[in-house]
Amino acid sequence: MASITLDNVGKVYPGGTRAIGDVSLDIADGEFIVLVGPSGCGKSTLLRMVAGLESITEGEVRIGDRVVNEIEPADRDIAMVFQNYALYPHMSVRQNLEYGLKNRRTPKAEINRRVEEAAGILQLAPYLDRKPRALSGGQRQRVAMGRAIVREPAAFLFDEPLSNLDAKLRVAMRLEIKELQRRLSTTSLYVTHDQLEAMTLADRLVVLNMGKVEQIGTPLDVYRKPASAFVAGFIGSPAMNLVPARAVPRLPGSAHAGLLGFRPEDLVIEPDGPIAMKITAVEELGAQRLVHGEVGGEPMTVTMSPQAELSDMVHMSLPAQALHRFDEKSGRRLD
Amino acid sequence: MKRTIFSNQLLPWLLLAPQLAITFIFFLWPAAQAIRQSFLREDAFGINTSFVGLANFEALWNSSQYLNSLKVTAIFAVSVTVLSMGAALLLAIAVDRMMKSTRPYTTLLVWPYAVAPAVAGILWWFIFNPTIGVLPYVMDRFGYDWNHVSNPGQAMTLVVIASAWKQISYNFLFFVAGLQAIPASMREAAAIDGAGPVRRFFDITLPLLSPTTFFLLVVNIVYSMFETFAVIDATTEGGPAQATNIMVYKVYFDGFVGQNIGSSAAQSVVLMLIVIALTVIQFRYVEKRVEY
Questions:
Q1: What is the pLDDT of residue A232?
Q2: N or C end of chain A, less CB within 10 A?
Q3: Could you tell me the keywords of this UniProt record (chain B) (predicted)?
């Protein structure tokens, strides 16, 4: 158990390309932090820097109160779950779980105790003597988690661990991971590009874009008060509408010359509402209906109930508190 | 894949005919001839030929020279295989660790494979020539007397090096491909699991390479036993005192130089059985035993 601190951490590749710039983050002991962002935003690189698989060229990473910049991955007291699980295919499940402990010369009795315990927690007991290739995707995922658990490390690092699973299994495993982390209360750093996964798992979210932190906060804070237009568009599904104020002149916030943001579910259908949208496409999701269209030449989306009548045009209004305003140039939130 | 149905019964046979003819004329017929001759004995002038049953094989079994040749072949095959695979693996690991310019190195390292065995033999013969060679000159400076013409151990060393050198390229290519097929995350996971570079190599890399290794093992044994004829012929000609007279060279020497056709044929039948055995082992086990 330990806290993790990132102090102005940056990474510049030998060629001069900057992957990560100036990230500072305090992770409390037992906290579940999710790094989220589009592919190529540097979230995996940042995680690998904490793991010791990538060098840190700027700033300092501390695990507990130890600066780990120059410490080998093995000695950082962390365990990592990889996207492709990285199970050793020639070893049985038991051997996979034992490997990290054997390398650390853990006494045999202690190894057995921990393996049995992890196998119990993860329901792997019947599969201990199988090879990874004889397991299903979800079971392999569990073995990868088990390998992290038996080490009893100061922190878990997850690198998109669920992205190789099918949608249904992903939801189930997501819950398992969350439950497991609560139970063990081990500090966790989790990387994903899936904003839904990020929202459901995180104690706090770190939204990254092009190697920089856009916002750090609890999922609800980030959802309710996105710090930038990027975060506003990235977190939440369907994505927030972002339009220049001049496209919707009858809205209250349209006086300033920035970007206006509002979530599709916040728009209210109203026959004489100030926003008139020309419908271009409709997506039926069952419980609701996503209606796409354009207002003043700008694309816009609204969620409607599946019972509502549809014509070519839809008129809507927006409660003042549902409106977010962003600077058009920097994209930062204006309050 | 598209399946073509021939309405004409003759056409498929015509299309196969060239390959079938080559297989028959150059492989099946000589093999049959060898098997037939291994049961016959010719008199010294080639006038009378008589059926002698297994006498030729019995004679081989009782010949100290042939048993010596078996031993020499075993030592030679194991040495060539170990040397060429070991060196190739080291080079492949070095290239696999490189970040940049992997390609030029790989290309350069593959060149020796294009050299014909006889040329490779001559090349090493020059380098190691006791009179005019570079290496004996250097070794002489350090007080080591190199003369593979009279020293059996040195002669064996020479043919092993000359034979292995060429094969390193081939093995190297397979090892590089094998190493690159191992996901980086596997080694990273092992690193986090507390395994140092050496442990990682023996616990993770080597087992994951085992299909490649086993395939190369069989290929290299076959190579060293059968395709090294030219190397031997160009360097030591089996000498000194039978020290490098491997089985395939002895077949040639007894048959074409010594004109003992029956014995030579019997020897080639033995060789044929060894090839068949190796091939069976490869096909039976390469898929089954060496998996993970």
A1: 93
A2: C
A3: Cell inner membrane, Cell membrane, Membrane, Transmembrane, Transmembrane helix, Transport
Domains of chain B: 27-62+260-292 (no CATH), 79-256 (1.10.3720.10)
CB contact under 8 A, A89 and B191: no
Q: Does B189 touch chain A (CB under 8 A)?
A: yes
A239-334 carries CATH number 2.40.70.10: no
What sign does the CA torsion over A88, A90, A94, A99 have?
A: negative
The answer to whether B188 faces chain A, any CB pair under 8 Å, is: yes
Which of B185, B191, B204 is the closest to A73 by Cβ? B191
Selecting from A90, A100, A133 the residue whose C-beta is nearest the C-beta of B193 gives: A100
CA distance A192 to A159: 7
Q: Which residues pair with B242 in a beta bridge?
A: none
Note every long-range contact of A243-249, with CB atoms under 8 Å and residues 24 or more positions apart, other chains counting: A243/A295, A243/A296, A243/A298, A243/A300, A244/A298, A244/A328, A245/A325, A246/A296, A247/A295, A247/A296, A247/A297, A247/A298, A248/A274, A248/A275, A248/A295, A248/A296, A248/A298, A249/A296
Cβ of residue B206 closer than 8 Å to a chain A Cβ:
no
Q: Per residue of chain A (335 residues), what is the pLDDT tens digit?
A: 689 999 999 999 888 888 998 999 999 999 999 999 998 899 999 999 999 999 999 999 999 889 999 999 999 999 999 999 999 999 999 999 999 999 999 999 999 999 999 999 888 999 999 999 999 888 999 999 999 999 999 999 999 999 888 888 899 889 989 998 988 899 999 999 999 999 999 999 999 999 999 999 999 999 999 999 999 999 988 999 998 888 887 776 666 678 889 999 999 988 888 888 999 999 998 889 999 999 888 899 999 988 888 888 899 988 888 889 898 888 899 87
CB nearest B185 (choices: A86, A99, A104):
A86
Mutate to test the interface with B, among A90, A106, A114, A191 (most CBs of B within 10 A): A90
**B194 contact residues in A (CB cutoff 8 A):** 74, 100, 103-104
A80:B189 CB<8 A: yes
CATH topology of domain A4-231: Rossmann fold (3.40.50)
Helix (H) or strand (E) holding B94: helix B64-97
Residues of A in contact with B214 (CB under 8 A): none
Please give the Cα distance from B168 to B229 (Å, whole number).
18
Please report, for chain A, the start and end positions of each structural domain, with discontinuous segments joined by +. 4-231, 239-334
Asked whether the beta carbons of residue B191 and residue A53 sit closer than 8 angstroms, the reply is: yes
Q: Is B194 left (phi over 0), alpha (psi -120 to 50) or beta?
A: left
Closest CA to A209 of A328, A324, A332: A332
What residue in B sits closest to A156 (Cα-Cα)? B192
Chain B residues touching A74 at Cβ < 8 A: 191-196
Residue B207 forms contact with A (CB below 8 Å) = yes
Bridge partners of A291, per DSSP, are: A282, A302
Residue holding tokens 């369907």?
A238
A81 beta partners: A158
The verdict on a CB contact (< 8 Å) between A88 and B190 is: yes
